[in-house]
């Protein structure tokens, strides 16, 4: 009669035991899914490999080579969703399975009209020296000797042999290039082409103009793994901006200031400058690269804002589609530097999602839309007095959408310019600066977008985003680059630094009154011959040359051979100052800086 209760007790005990065994959390181990990762056993012939984030998805593999070598075909690879490193391809599209360290080579001089050079090779190893000389009757301009550096560039300047018999001077031939034959008469054209494996940057065709200058920008040949040095980029960019920004326009100045001695562009009263910054945020841009790009761009914006002219900014991010970060039509934000930077700092790097192509046409088309809007409302925004700067930062080439050149042609049309021209010098209301980052950029395409103006560079190719940041940071202060005599406008009133590239010429005994002169190079000063003597046949005295950052002593004085203050005394002319010019060579180089 007690069987049922006993059975219930036994059943309850067994169930409880089973339950305790099934939910014994102390003994349980939960298997979390392992993060996706790529192999960390990759290697490069002749170098070594490093991995960010341990090779996990989204991390970057970086190849490292010796100081005079570079990784081929790529310097880095990205770990994708398929747990594979991005594919390596050569310039012709062929897939490559293993990276290699290759020697850095400089493209050698291939042609020197009316001259000779040695050695005659197509390529030169780092440390190689090429020497140049000219035929009788021709003078050598540029460097007589150049050395191949580890950046793939040559020291010195392009050698040119010229006798000045034509309307235009010999425009020269850069290393790695050949130039068509012909005279340098007004209306004549020369055509450049680079040897295989090199891209031509600058103007491929130049014309001798009526003012005896050559149209377009100076060409240069650059290989896929060659880059512009940061110092050269900073100097060229800062010099170009100085000429563009230091405008004579009282209403456009943010504050009243004294006159500047910088080279200027004369524009009408009430002018403005609109700056359009196009940031590449496509799939090849890592988060780290984007952060470097953002930081560099903020540095550039601060630099632009340092000029005393009213600016408005439009900042956009482009991948397959375009996202506006700062809209230029919102004048309360686009004209406030703090708001512009705040919006840029708050932009989400992942906002493009999976649409990670590179649509440069869409980016430039957005710029054309904004320019068109401003043109339609020109009465309210001084459209006809506004200069436009477009700055493109990209690490690749446009791989989706229409050709970007189409959108740029629309922009030129809106501003009243013809698109089919090889010289953009007369486009005073438009400057297009292009920064290519890394070895994967389509240099030919970027060259077609950059402005080509006489005496200026608008296309720069740098090694990585870190270098881009260094460039933009270095031009924040004009002190870091050599610019053509920029007067320092200081709040305190004093003469120091307000007469750029001017020097004082004093005799050592200070018996004669001091003269003034101009710095023409680090080792030469141009001044008047009467500071030294009354005729070129007299022995000139030693002099002190005082510049903004110190003083140097003269080593040699060359007076014009026809200088003679008494030359017309027989005609009752007591003092004759024709040919009153002298060159002074100094014993120590004058540092060309913001203080000179």
TrEMBL record:
Q: Which organism is it from?
A: Notothenia coriiceps (black rockcod)
- The signal peptide, as residue positions, is 1-20
List the GO molecular function terms: serine-type endopeptidase activity
Q: Which PANTHER family does UniProt cross-reference here?
A: COMPLEMENT C2, SUSHI DOMAIN-CONTAINING PROTEIN
Q: What protein name applies here? A: C3/C5 convertase
Q: Which CDD domains match?
A: CCP (cd00033)
Domain (Sushi) spans: 104-163, 166-223
Question: Where in the numbering of this chain does the VWFA domain appear?
Answer: 274-475
List the Pfam families hit by this protein, alphabetically: Sushi, Trypsin, VWA
Q: Which GO terms describe its biological process?
A: complement activation; innate immune response; proteolysis; response to bacterium
Sorted UniProt keywords: Disulfide bond, Glycoprotein, Hydrolase, Immunity, Innate immunity, Protease, Repeat, Secreted, Serine protease, Signal, Sushi
Localisation: Cell surface; Secreted
DNA repair as UniProt keyword = no
GO CC terms, sorted: cell surface; extracellular exosome
Needs which cofactor? Mg(2+); Mn(2+)
Q: List the disulfide bonds.
A: 134-161, 194-221
């Amino acid at each position: 009669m007690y069987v049922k209760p006993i059975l219930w007790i036994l059943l309850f005990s067994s169930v409880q035991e089973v339950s305790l065994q099934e939910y014994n959390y102390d003994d349980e181990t939960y298997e979390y899914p392992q993060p996706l990762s790529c192999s960390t056993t990759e290697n490069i012939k002749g170098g070594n490999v490093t991995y960010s984030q341990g090779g996990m998805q989204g991390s970057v593999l970086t190849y490292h080579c010796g100081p005079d070598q570079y990784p081929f075909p790529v310097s880095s690879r990205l770990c994708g969703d398929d747990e594979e490193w991005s594919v390596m391809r050569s310039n012709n599209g062929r897939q490559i399975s293993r990276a290699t360290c290759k020697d850095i080579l400089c493209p050698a001089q291939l042609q020197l009209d009316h001259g000779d050079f040695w050695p005659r090779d197509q390529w030169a190893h780092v440390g190689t020296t090429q020497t140049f000389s000219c035929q009788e009757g021709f003078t050598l301009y540029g460097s007589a000797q150049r050395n191949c550096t580890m950046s793939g560039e040559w020291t010195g300047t392009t050698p040119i042999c010229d006798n000045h018999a034509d309307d235009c001077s010999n425009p020269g031939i850069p290393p790695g290039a050949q130039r068509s034959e012909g005279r340098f008469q007004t209306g004549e054209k020369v055509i450049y082409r680079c040897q295989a494996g090199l891209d031509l940057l600058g103007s491929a065709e130049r014309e001798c103009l009526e003012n005896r200058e050559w149209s377009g920008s100076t060409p240069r040949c650059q290989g896929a793994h060659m880059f512009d040095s940061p110092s050269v980029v900073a100097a060229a960019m800062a010099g170009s901006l100085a000429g563009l920004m230091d405008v004579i326009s009282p209403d456009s100045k943010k504050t009243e200031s004294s006159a500047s001695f910088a080279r200027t562009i004369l524009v009408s009263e009430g002018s403005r400058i609109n700056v359009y910054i196009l940031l590449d945020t496509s799939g090849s841009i890592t988060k780290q690269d984007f952060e470097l790009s953002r930081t560099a761009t903020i540095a550039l914006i601060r630099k632009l804002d340092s000029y005393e002219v009213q600016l408005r900014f439009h900042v956009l991010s482009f991948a397959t589609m375009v996202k506006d970060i700062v809209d230029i039509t919102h004048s309360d934000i686009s004209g406030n530097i703090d708001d512009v930077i705040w919006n840029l700092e708050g932009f989400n790097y992942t906002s493009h999602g999976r649409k990670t192509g590179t649509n440069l046409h869409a980016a430039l088309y957005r710029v054309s839309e904004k320019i068109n809007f401003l043109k339609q409302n020109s009465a309210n925004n001084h459209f006809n007095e506004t200069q436009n700067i477009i700055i493109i930062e990209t690490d690749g080439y446009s791989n989706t959408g229409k050709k970007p050149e189409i959108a740029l042609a629309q922009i030129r049309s809106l501003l009243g310019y013809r698109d089919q021209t090889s010289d953009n010098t007369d486009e005073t209301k438009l400057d297009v600066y292009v920064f290519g980052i890394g070895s994967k950029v389509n240099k030919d395409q970027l060259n077609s977008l950059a402005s080509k103006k006489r005496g200026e560079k608008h296309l720069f190719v740098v090694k990585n985003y870190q270098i881009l940041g260094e460039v933009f940071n270095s031009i924040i202060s004009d002190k870091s680059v050599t610019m053509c005599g920029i007067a320092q406008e200081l709040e305190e009133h004093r003469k120091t630094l307000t007469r750029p590239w001017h020097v004082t010429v004093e005799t050592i005994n200070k018996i004669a009154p001091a003269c003034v002169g101009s710095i023409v190079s680090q080792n030469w000063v141009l001044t008047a011959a009467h500071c030294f003597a009354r005729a070129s046949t007299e022995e000139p005295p030693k002099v002190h040359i005082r510049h903004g950052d110190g003083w140097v002593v003269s080593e040699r004085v060359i007076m014009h051979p026809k200088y003679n203050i008494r030359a017309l005394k027989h005609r009752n002319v007591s003092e004759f100052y024709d040919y009153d010019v002298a060159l002074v060579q100094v014993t120590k180089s004058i540092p060309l800086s913001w203080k000179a």
